[in-house]
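Entry 14. Structure prediction run on the chain below.
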Amino acid sequence: MSTKPQFVICIKNEDYPASLQLWKVYRVLPDEKGSRHNMIRVIDESGEDYLFPANYFVPVKLPQAVTSAILATA
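Output returned:
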């Protein structure tokens, strides 16, 4: 399991409009059990981490400066 921070962009939110904003970058938290069920754990709009369908997101690789800035505000 990777310890490097991972990020995704939300491309679908139809079942979770209050929790997920389209086109927003979200931080991914490791969750082996969830990934076996095609789910991904992200920190949502409430600031808490929850499982969502993996197909609601696309992984992105951010520049180090962006990653550092996001992690500094977390």
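The chain has a mean pLDDT of 92.
Filed with the rest of this week's runs.
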